[in-house]
Amino acid sequence: MKLNQIQAIGRIGKDAVIHNHQGNQFLSFSLAIDETYKNRDGVKVERVTFYDCVSNQERFFKVANWLTKGREILVEGKPSVRTYEKDGKIYGTIKIEINNISLGSSPHDQRPAAAAGAAPATQAAPATQTTTAAATAGSFTSEAGSDDLPF
């Protein structure tokens, strides 16, 4: 049995873009996961790891407008490493082939402007509040005697 799966929660580092490559569409964006820890000397260290997230699944194209810089998301998918050489140095990037996305909060909980052809967002009706009258002590009567109790 083999399992090659990653779950990562972080913030989008670069807005999602839908690319066309040789007749195929795919979605891409970067995911930044920051962590803070103290080193041996007790000094606070902050580190950010970036992941390149990609997918060719059409269902993710529909939420691309919501995948904006700063939004918190959960990404699930297959991880892989891509290496390349630049200026004589070898670099690597971590790529996630997305299987699932769960949206979290955005920096200001903003919604994107309605895209061409997209239906405008509807505002939910305010919830109605119901109140119940409190029972008074005299509103309950005891009809059962102590002999009627099963215990």
Automatic annotation (TrEMBL):
This is Single-stranded DNA-binding protein. It holds the Pfam family SSB. Residues 103-151 are annotated as: Disordered. Keywords: DNA-binding. InterPro entries: NA-bd_OB-fold, Primosome_PriB/ssb, ssDNA-bd. Residues 113-138 have a biased composition (Low complexity). NCBIfam families: ssb. Gene3D superfamilies: Nucleic acid-binding proteins. CDD domains: SSB_OBF. PROSITE patterns: SSB. It comes from Spirosoma foliorum.
